[in-house]
User: Fold this.
Amino acid sequence: MSKPKIGVIVSSTRDTRFADKPANWFMDQVKDHAELDFDLLDLRDFDLPFFNEKASNAWVPSEDDKAVKWQKTLAKYDGFVVVMAEYNRSITGALKNAFDQAYKEWNRKPIGAVAYGSMGGAFALQHLRNIATELQMVPVRSSVHIGGADFFTVSPLGSDKDMSAIEGNLKNSLNGLLDDLTWWTKATKAARS
Assistant:
C-alpha cells in the first residue's frame, strides 16, 4: 500500500526569499520518512492570478486554468506542511491567495508548518490556523519555529550559516510536527475513504 502524500508548500514568492533554506532542510529531514511521502510545491511554479472567480469552487467550478491546475495538484495530497514566512505579523499574500483558489481540495486534511521570522513566525502561524479551520482542515498542534537567535544565525540578515548550525534546536519540534502530521494524516485519510 502506498504511503500518504504530503504537499510541502513554499509560501513566499519573493526573488530574495529565505524560504528555500528551511524548505530544503525540511525536505532533507523527511526524505526517508517511514510513513509519509513528501513533495515540494513551490508557489512560484503555479503563477496563480489574484482570486477573481465568480465564487469559491465549493459553489461554482473555477474558470481560470491556473486555478484549476492548482486545485488538481492539491487534490492529490492527504495533508500539507507550509514553509512560511511572517510578513507584518501574518502570512504572505501569495499564500492567502493560494488558499482562496481552492476549497474542496483542502477539506478534511491536516496542515502543519515550518514557520520563520524574528518571532518564529508565531503570528503568521496563528493566521494560518484560522484560515485552515475555515477550510475544514485540521491544523496540527506541533510546528517548527525558526526565530530569534536561530533565525539570525541562518538568515542572510544575520550570519547566513547553514541550517545544520541550528538543527539541534529544531529536532524536538520537528519530531513533534511529524508525529502529529502522521497521526492526523492517517486518521483523516481513513475517515475520507
User: Anything to note?
Assistant: The chain has a mean pLDDT of 97.
